[in-house]
Amino acid sequence: MAFRTWAKLVGTAFGAAALVGAGQLGLAYGLGVLNFSRVVEVTARDAWTAELAWVSWFALTAAAAGGLAARPRLTPRAGAGTRLIGGIAAGLGAATIVPLTMQPARSAQVAGVNEVFVIGACAVLGAAAGIFAAWAALGRNAARWSLLTLSAVAWLLAIVSVAPSLRSGEPGSPVRLGVLDAGFVPDDLAERASLFVMPAVALICGVVVGLIARRRQLSIVAIALAGLPGPALLTLAYLIAGPGSTRAQEMPYWGAMTAAGAGVLGSVLAAVLGRGPATARPEKPAPAEPTPDRPPLPQRDAQPESAIAKAATKSGPGLPPVATGRATVAARATVAARAAVAAQRPDDELRPSDTGVITMPPFDGFTPQQPPSPAPKQGHPDGEISDWVSGLGR
């Protein structure tokens, strides 16, 4: 990845996480979900524990939001290492809520607790765990759907819980994460329901997200794990905050511990139940059979290598050896085919077309030719020449 691409990825993840974390804290302060100015007695320390769960969850969701925002910055070749870098940047951006929580915690009065240190530690742990949430959001579509769905439902429950106090203008009771604590719900019913609200919400969201992933024709493993990321943030937030000391906080704590499993169960049900050929992955098309009007072309029967070698090594006049050395593939095939045909004929019936070699009669050597006899001389006869020579002597 180029430097500019890295800078865009890291900057987007960091900035989006910091913005979402600060925005959630501001909304929580405004709605009264978080109130660090109250005096918490030893007998009512679960209210402080409930606020710690909210702070941890804000850090987790802020880091996940950084991963969601940085997803378009990834290149198609980005691997797990690149996504991890983006997740770390998102976690660092989510850690910016640490001073935004520690400063208001100075006015809190909790018996036997160092308020500033405890709330800062919860925010840091939430941001560190949020790295893995951002990594999942950067890599999987189903993880993004689960994170968005559960975050929206958790905020919806919180808004419904504080709505009566906003209407009356009176300070309301502490609102627990993932629990319906509205004033119109009886206390006994709210306490019993706090054990089942988060698992039920996780199960329903897991089924919905699993069906969406199944409709997108994702793999069976991706569909089965589609309901895990969102409920896992609720589980981690309550693990960081602790179970509390009374049933008011212990019930939602154990409900959060089962939320992750309920989300996976919902997505597994969506992946397994009612799965038919219409929702299965399309298979590769089978090769088309030849039509009757165009029958397939006949293929020549390939001669086994043993027959070709036998034909190539058979002794007899006119059989060429198999091409070796630098002969081309076409020449080898031609020679082998001719040799195979020749092997099926008797030696006395071999044809030049079978072997490509024209037989010649045996060579007996050259016959020396006699030089031509000289032609008789034209001119004087022998008698006349003798007389002429004797006349000169006289």
Automatic annotation (TrEMBL):
<feature type="transmembrane region" description="Helical">
    <location>
        <begin position="145"/>
        <end position="166"/>
    </location>
</feature>
<feature type="transmembrane region" description="Helical">
    <location>
        <begin position="253"/>
        <end position="274"/>
    </location>
</feature>
<feature type="compositionally biased region" description="Pro residues">
    <location>
        <begin position="287"/>
        <end position="298"/>
    </location>
</feature>
<keyword id="KW-1133">Transmembrane helix</keyword>
<feature type="region of interest" description="Disordered">
    <location>
        <begin position="276"/>
        <end position="325"/>
    </location>
</feature>
<keyword id="KW-0472">Membrane</keyword>
<feature type="region of interest" description="Disordered">
    <location>
        <begin position="340"/>
        <end position="394"/>
    </location>
</feature>
<protein>
    <submittedName>
        <fullName>Uncharacterized protein</fullName>
    </submittedName>
</protein>
<keyword id="KW-0812">Transmembrane</keyword>
<feature type="transmembrane region" description="Helical">
    <location>
        <begin position="52"/>
        <end position="70"/>
    </location>
</feature>
<feature type="transmembrane region" description="Helical">
    <location>
        <begin position="82"/>
        <end position="102"/>
    </location>
</feature>
<feature type="transmembrane region" description="Helical">
    <location>
        <begin position="117"/>
        <end position="138"/>
    </location>
</feature>
<feature type="transmembrane region" description="Helical">
    <location>
        <begin position="193"/>
        <end position="213"/>
    </location>
</feature>
<feature type="transmembrane region" description="Helical">
    <location>
        <begin position="220"/>
        <end position="241"/>
    </location>
</feature>
